Amino acid sequence: MTATYEDISGWFDEAKRNGCAYLIIGLDPMDHDNFPIYCMDAAEWHKKRDDLLRSGNRYDEVYDLSLPKETQMAERRALHFPPDSMPVKVGYPSPTRYAVLHPKRIRNEE
Question: Residue 65: which of 94, 86, 44, 47 has the closest Cα?
Fold first, then answer.
């Protein structure tokens, strides 16, 4: 089920209490269920984002826990990537990243 405002607000507060730097709202495209992914720093954010995309899931939103909660929650879609990252199209890897994640599909070896 799609996460409500209250769900995301609760995940944001929990992540902040645990000292996280970023919160990724993941999405399972099969059942449209949202789930939180907590990241302690930018390096962990990159790893967890890559793992999420490799697993066939995607992300709906990314919250930077150093920014005010109210302004991010008021946005239509919060996408606050770490400063050293180049954003990928939401939920889908770019063609270059797709080739890295799925090299057999690019070469038609399935």
Answer: 44
Q: What is the pLDDT along the chain (110 residues), one digit of tens a residue?
A: 688 999 999 999 999 999 999 999 999 888 889 999 999 999 999 999 999 989 989 999 999 999 999 999 999 999 998 887 655 555 554 444 444 444 444 444 44
Q: Under DSSP, is residue 97 helix (H, G, I), strand (E, B) or coil?
A: helix
Q: Count structural domains, the chain.
A: 1
Task: Report phi then psi at 37, rounded to 5.
Answer: -130, 120
Q: Is residue 34 a contact partner of residue 57, using CB atoms and an 8 Å limit?
A: no
Helices (H) and strands (E) in the chain, counts: 5, 3
The token pair at 21 is 């730097």
Segments forming the whole domain that contains residue 58: 5-106
Q: pTM for the complete prediction?
A: 0.73
